[in-house]
Amino acid sequence: MSKMLVILFTALLTVTACATAGKKVDRTHISDIRNGVQSKVQIRQWFGEPYTVKTELVGHPSGCVERWTYEFAKAQGFGTVTYSEILVVDFNGAGKVCDHAFSKSGKE
Question: If you average pLDDT over residues 6-35, what whole number do you get?
Fold first, then answer.
């Protein structure tokens, strides 16, 4: 009987478990980001270390050459994403913001 309870409990945890990836984006300064104003140093002070960094960005319409991405996702059950948010900040050759965007989807 106890073996059956362990199996049932494990199955219940699998179905109701929650997993996260990345770090929640601190939204305090999102509306303060201005193209041509903030530097990499300022963005790092506001948001911390990016989740990913892509250098050698090519073909960006605004001439951006580097992209920092801040991402967070929450999933439940069998990996179904229930909430996600992403902040993308692009920089020009001088290290200033040249483009940025924030989006979120789902319920927190």
Answer: 71
Start-to-end C-alpha separation, the chain: 38
pTM (predicted TM-score): 0.78
Q: What is the pLDDT of residue 17?
A: 64
Helix or strand run (H / E) with residue 7:
helix 2-16
Helix (H) or strand (E) holding 100: strand 97-106
C-beta neighbour count of 86 within 10 angstroms: 17
Residue 35 class from Cβ within 10 Å (0-12 exposed, 13-18 middle, 19+ buried)? middle
Q: Please indicate, yes or no, if residue 65 is contained in any of the structural domains.
A: yes
Q: Which domain covers residue 35, as residue numbers?
A: 18-106
58 alpha-carbon distance from chain centroid: 22
Q: Considering the domain boundaries, does residue 5 fall inside one?
A: no
Q: Are 81 and 106 in contact (CB under 8 A)?
A: yes
Instruction: Record the tokens describing residue 79, joined without a space.
Output: 């990996």
Number of separate domains in the chain? 1
